[in-house]
Amino acid sequence: MAETTINGQLYDWESVEIRLPNGVAVGITEINYSDERSVELRYGKGGTPRGRGHKNYKPSCDLTLDLDEAERLRSELGGYYAKTPFNIVVSYGNNDQATVTDTIKDCVITKVDTSAKQDDDNAGAKKLEVQPQMIAWNGTDAYNAGRDGSPGA
Question: 20, 116, 135, 149: which one has the fewest Cβ atoms less than 10 Å from its Cβ?
Fold first, then answer.
């Protein structure tokens, strides 16, 4: 059953709260995260598939931070390429709908990109590419391999 809204307010950018290791990010203009686990048909003798083979789980994330926000994160981590993984928590909520919280787990920064140009209103903003180990979509891990390699909950 679809959830109805009282005042017609749906999730928008103002309803998103992004928590980094240095606290709630205010100077953030974009976050993108996704995961995938490809499935390939397996063939043997003949021209029809015998079954499916699963490839590895692959999560990814990138975010764009204003320079001051990026500097707070860098300071908290002890450097952009610090070895200690961190979580990014993204919550979507407003008065009319339930809060949805995704956790991008065990992240490390793999690339930092910036630019500045004449008449730039946000000079030095940093785009960070992040490599997470797992994404929990509203509290549920997308894929959780057990020690034997089998899917978990």
Answer: 149
Q: What's the angle, vertex CA 26, arms to CA 21 and CA 31, rounded to 5?
A: 75
The C-alpha atoms of residue 125 and residue 114 are separated, in whole angstroms, by: 6
Cα 28 from chain centroid (whole Å): 14
Q: What number of other Cβ atoms are within 10 A of residue 78's Cβ?
A: 10
Is residue 56's pLDDT more than 80? Answer: yes
What does the alpha-carbon distance between residue 6 and residue 27 come to, in Å, rounded to a whole number? 30
Place of tokens 């931070």: 65
Tokens 């929990």, residue?
136
pLDDT for the residue numbered 137: 93
Residue ranges of the alpha helices (H) in 92-146?
none
pLDDT in tens, 87-112: 999 999 877 778 999 999 999 999 99
